[in-house]
Amino acid sequence: MADVLEKLYSQRMTPQMLAEKVLEDRLGGEMPSIPIDPFKLMREYGIVYQFMGFEDLEGIYLVPEDGNDIPLVGINYKRKITRQRFTAAHELCHHLKDRRNEACSP
Question: Domains along the chain?
Fold first, then answer.
């Protein structure tokens, strides 16, 4: 999985370019069904997520400590599903772009 992730993102890549690469990786060029399920994408990329009752956060991405660690995402269950989906896609982006950093800023 790490090899796949390394090939998906490169510096200076726009969010749209990254989204297109992810869809190509997951769908192999087929037309995606709408709406795209960001929770399914997180599962496919090995991310464990949980809905949590945050007061001030929409979501959080916990960077894996090493190659044996599991990436974790928390999503605020107090928000509407549309916001939860956006947050899931946002945290997936952190996983693809920032998983090698010790800390990522929101």
Answer: 2-98 (1.10.10)
